[in-house]
């Protein structure tokens, strides 16, 4: 019961931009009027400090991450945006690990003491240095032979460094641990390794988990509700493999995905990734802590026609999970050239005004169960 | 961007972190062997789950044994990529002989990773 | 054929009177409470063979009981009761001079002379069931008996064969199934829409509707420009206000959800329903089993079926436009408007050859020739409607009603999929999330918390 009350307080705001918090108005009290007016004029909806996001790209796959713990919580609590990569959805890894740590370092000597971690780390460092010496030796050897161009040298250096890092991450640690006469148990070995990665040099807990945002969430939070410290247009062009001078397949997919996302968000749904049910999105009525999602959404271009098995497969999966499958068709109403022009001029409102959604429910039907 | 950052953003690394710090696997490593497939480099991970997975092998004491994982980005999870031909190559070149299954680890753009078994040949389903 | 058992007043039993009454008592012994004696139920299967013979014996016994029963049944036709039916090759239809039997109530078209004309799929279905004996009549009056194999060779194309399989599947389950378009002798146009949704009368409203459906959104939307500073100069004092500014960005297709809107939508689109061989069309009307079905003045069907062969290459799964065309050409008891059992409502909103069904029924009632002839109708309909009318009194809370609207959608049809002889169905419905808002309104600061708590605990109750 107490948890419920706290949920009411915690998830009070359905969106990360709040309505004005105005004082109460008493009809017969002119001072309250003046105060109300003053509050109305001086307050505004926008966030005073924008939330910082890190956007990185690796092999053409984009990562959008919020790393600040307070920001992560802010975005989760106000509309359930983002996913904690080391949690089921809400980023709870840091809190849980901290708690686990406290309880185990308080007394219970399960062989996981901080000294242990320090010892492992020291060994790791020694091992790492040993390896580095080998690498440096090798490089020196090559230089002495004198047949290295600067480019080749850089390349080799980079390769060796990579190896070194990898060494640090996996093999070395495992290898060192095998030598540790104190550790026999597999589970302790695992815990020790796990801990060595989450404590910094001063034994403070690192936050390994960030709140990862989907590209569509990022557009929503930079364009529709501008609270992130990035420009939505720059982001869109970064998302697509090519620049936005061409109406590419990727761009079209991103635009229709966003149109659908915005459509559901703007009618009050909490829209989250549907990956676990084989769909693009799932819709929660208020959010994951309150109800199960009732709907799976597949976003399709309005001209799209897939092989029949595509529809039946997804419908079967959704049906088994007791969810209704909605095919959300998005139609582009303007020419590609027009959209590109608006996009290049940064007129995103016009861009998204040019998309229209239409919805269809697809459900398995069994004749024998429908005779009354 | 430094190489270090680059490395940490790789899907192999994402799966590794997930296994070590969320699923609590042990002996997790990114395997050295790799193969080129359709202009992409495929690398596996290996590791030992905390408890035996469904239909999995165990050692004589009932402890879980090593599993192989194939990290894939959802965006590249298309029928022309992970084909039978590709999987055959993976079983042949990247796994120890007699490996019965690998775990497809699909990394989504929201940071979620979903895991699916892929068996070599026909296999009895879960009860 | 054995003597017909005339007192089958039980609609649950799907056996038609004209069929041989089979004695299933031996088989029914196996649908026993004792799990050892009974046939394994659907869905309850053993995981794998357990290498004992228990499973096999069980299956063998069930199979044997079935075969024994069939072996001891009466075969063949008593000449006196034989129903001869004739195939006309040029027209690809069948006819029966003086048809008798239950099937006449739901199948084919009867002309003034009392001849029953059958669509080919009906003809073949009845022949397969042994209800009729098919013949080919030559010009000089010689009757040549036809085998089932002969009949199958008369199929014109794959589509006709698929349609027949789907027809047979639904008929065997007891549904009443009729073709939607082709007629053999008389056009009997069954519609939810009167052709007199008078065009002149409608033009004004039509124009309004056109603009509502198509234009207004865009012009409205341009009024709002999202920008970096939007939330600095706009003053939103409540969450709904913020949502309302957001939901003007993306326009959406509204699903017509009232009689009026359906009529308007029909008027607006009736001109542009183009049909080609490639596009899918509604093939069958389907009614749930109904002993009082009136072939001549049917109610609107309960479902409409679009048939689709998944393995024919040039038959693509419908695109959104195709789906919209299908929705616009639907004509059934739109159950989102009213409970299908409310005959009063449906008789008012059903037109047979453009005459309101209620009017047709009234005319029949008022005709002295029919006095006493139709007692069934008088007793049945009021009974039905009073039964069902009690239901809507328990009105569901608004958020549950909303959820039902979202889950069920609006106009819908059944897609019957043929996959190498296996028939399956999916229900495809028009949905409209754009017309519903589900946002959470935080309680005002002055409000006491318990109010909100109570609300939610109520919600939880209805959920379980």
UniProtKB/TrEMBL annotation, chain A:
Pfam family, one: tRNA_int_endo
Top-level division of the source organism's lineage: Eukaryota
GO terms of molecular function: nucleic acid binding; tRNA-intron lyase activity
Record's GO cellular component terms: cytoplasm; tRNA-intron endonuclease complex
Active site: 284, 292, 323
Keyword Lyase: yes
Family per record: Belongs to the tRNA-intron endonuclease family.
PANTHER family: TRNA-SPLICING ENDONUCLEASE SUBUNIT SEN2
Assembly notes: Heterotetramer composed of SEN2, SEN15, SEN34 and SEN54. Interacts directly with SEN54.
Protein's name according to its UniProt entry: tRNA-splicing endonuclease subunit Sen2
Organism: Maudiozyma exigua
UniProtKB/TrEMBL annotation, chain B:
Keyword annotations of the record: Endonuclease, Hydrolase, Nuclease, tRNA processing
Annotated Gene Ontology cellular component terms: tRNA-intron endonuclease complex
UniProt-listed GO biological process terms: tRNA-type intron splice site recognition and cleavage
A molecular function GO annotation: tRNA-intron lyase activity
Domain tRNA-splicing endonuclease subunit Sen15: 15-127
A Pfam family annotated for this UniProt entry: Sen15
Family: Belongs to the SEN15 family.
Stated name of the protein: tRNA splicing endonuclease subunit
Organism: Maudiozyma exigua (Yeast)
Gene name tied to this protein: SEN15
UniProtKB/TrEMBL annotation, chain C:
Hydrolase recorded as keyword: yes
Record domain tRNA-splicing endonuclease subunit Sen54 N-terminal: where: 67-136
GO molecular function: endonuclease activity
A GO CC term attached to the entry: tRNA-intron endonuclease complex
GO biological process: tRNA-type intron splice site recognition and cleavage
Disordered: annotated segments: 362-398, 441-464
Family indicated by similarity: Belongs to the SEN54 family.
Protein name: tRNA-splicing endonuclease subunit sen54
Species assigned in the record: Maudiozyma exigua (Yeast)
The encoding gene: SEN54
